[in-house]
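Subgroup meeting minutes
Present: P.N., E.W., G.H.
Scribe: E.W.

1. P.N. recapped why we're keeping a running log of single-chain structure predictions: easier to compare across weeks, and new members can see raw inputs and outputs side by side.
2. G.H. added today's entry (175 aa).
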Amino acid sequence: GKRRNQQYYIFGGIGATYFNPKGQYSDGSWHALRPLMTEGQSKPYSPIAFTAPMGFGFRLGMGAQWRIGLEASYNMVFSDYLDDVSTTCGNPANYSDPIAQYFVNPSDPAITIGVPNGSTGGYNWFGPGYQRGDNQQRDSYYRLNIVIARNITYKDYGRQRIKTKKSKVSGTKIR
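Output recorded in log:
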C-alpha cells in the first residue's frame, strides 16, 4: 500500500571534509587564512579533517523509481579550525606581512598599520594572548538537505511475489 512508499531512517558514519577559511581584507580582497597562521601556530593546521555525521530523514516514493525526501544532520568535525579560530589571539608584532598582521587582529586598525596600541585612542578588544576561541569544543555544523533520487536498479520484487503466490495456488508456474 501507500505506507510502503514512506521511509523514515536514522544514520551515522565517518567522513572527511576539506576546508579553506578565508577572510576579507580592508581593501575588499579575500585571502586564505590557513597559511597566515593567525594564532601564532608553529605550522599551518591541516585543511582536511575527519567528521562524524549523524542524523535522520524521511523519503517518499514517487512512482516506481523516484524518491523525494528531507534529511537533517549534525556533523562533528575533528578539528577546531573550520573558521580559523581555536585558541588565543596572536601578536601582530610577530608578523612582517601587513595582511597577516591585519588578520591576526582585524578589530584594531592601530595594530595592523604598525602604530602602537592606544596611540590613536582606539580600544583593542582582542590583544595578543587573549582568548579567541575555545579549543575544548571542536567545530561542528548542521545540514538540512532536500533529496531527489532515482532508483537506477529498479526491479519490481513486489509484483514478482504476487505472481509467484498466484502460480502456487493455480499450480502453474509463471516466469
